[in-house]
Amino acid sequence: MSWLEEVLGTTTPVIGVVHVPPLPGSPRGEADGLPGILDRVRRDAAALARGGADAVLVENYGDAPYHPTDVPKHVVAFMTRISAAAREAGGLPVGVNVLRSDGAAALAVASAAGGRFVRVNVYVGARVTDQGVVEGRAHELQRLRRRVAPDVHLLSDVRVKHSSPLGEERPLGLEVEDVVGRGRADGVIVTGDSTGRPPKPDQLRDARRAAAGVPVLAGSGVTRESAAEILEEADGVIVGTAVKEGGRTEAPVSESRVRSFVEAARGGDG
Description:
The protein has one domain: Aldolase class I (TIM Barrel, Alpha-Beta Barrel). The protein contains nine helices and eleven strands. The two termini are about 30 Å apart.
């Protein structure tokens, strides 16, 4: 049995994103905004669960511009409370992504809040991003996980969206081999170039071939119309914007759009 089936109950999961509004202390946050944030997170997590999603991924989307790799302590505290609220409200397995790429914070939050997996945007190598050069810390994260979160699974992006290589781009398959073989990631996430853009089918095929049985997920741009086709090449999908009201990233999750997406992904006519 793969860990996807054991933890998420399926080998082809639909993971819905909870885009957390700006946290207190962030450029767009409000000092007294946590109660409202918790209400929104609970509603979104519940809507994802009722619509048939298999898991929830909580990320501090509203905190842009993001800290590159080391968020302040208050962000860890807020994300722990928020992730626990998402787990309790939806009853689904919860993952954590602390933007831009603070894998240590994500592991700490998941360990404290009952999370089952984390997403790390730059896990091995280095990428040029809008936060500057972000370097992977796989060596630290694997040791931290062993100490504080041994049951939390670690998913790594490859060529994460909104980033470029430092030099010439290496073949995708070689990068996946490094993530899995040398970085020891439990899953690989392939995205398009930016939010809302999907990975290409040949990228998913190359990643899956190189991953040698480790799950490969499509991490951006998946829609109701493309979900079934993408799942022919990927082991699962992470969906955010497509299940929001009006298809707007900042909008609340729409239960009906989640249900329609899941039906399409599972091969129904929705």
